[in-house]
Amino acid sequence: MTEVPPDIAASTLDQLDPPAWGPAPEDATTLVRRVHALRGVSLGSLSIGDLRVLIAQDVAFFALGFLGGASISAGWATVRPGVDVDKVEAAYLEELDKLTIELASDDELARAKALIEADELGALSRVEERADRLSMYATLFDDPELVNQMLPRYLSVTAEQIRDVARAVFRPDNRAVLTYLPEADAAGAAEVAA
Q1: What is the distance between the alpha carbons of residues 129 and 67, in angstroms, rounded to a whole number?
Q2: E strand intervals along the chain
Q3: What global pTM score does this model have?
Q4: For labelling, which of 73, 96, 116, 143 has a CA lying 20 to 30 Å from the CA of 175?
C-alpha cells in the first residue's frame, strides 16, 4: 500500500477538492448525507468502508419485469482509474447482500415511495404515456383498469417484502458478473515503458 504524505492524510476532500460541499440538503438520501459528511473527514481517518462509499463514480440498479417467466435485475458501477475493480465489485455485492438481511429504514422506504409516486404521476400526466400504458395493460393483461391500480400496489410494498424478495433473488448462484475494462492506450503504454 502506498504511504500517504502526512499533510495529505491530515487534509479533507473538501480542502483538496474545493469548493467545500458543506452539510447535505435536508431531503438528501442517506448515501448523499454520508458522502457530504465524509468529505469533511481527514483522509488518514477514513475507514475502508468510508473509502468504499467514495470510490464509485456511477452506481445503478434496476429491474426489468417481463410478462411471463423470470424477470431480470441488473446494475453497474463505473470505477475511477486506479481503483481496484474487485474491491468495488465486492462492495457492490455487499450492499445487495445487506438487502437480504436488513430491513429498509422507514426513511429509505418513504423516500423510495415518494420517488416512485412522483415518477408514476409524472408519466401518467403525459397523454402519450397514459395511452401506452392503457394499451399495454389491455393487450397484455386484458385489464386496462390496471393503469389505476399499479401505483397503489407499488406504494403498499413493505420493508419485509423487499427483504424477502431480495433473499429469493440476490443469491450468489443466481447472478452473473461482467467486467468491462478499457483497452490500454498503446501510446501511453509505450511512454510508461520508455
Answers
A1: 19
A2: 56-64, 72-79
A3: 0.62
A4: 116
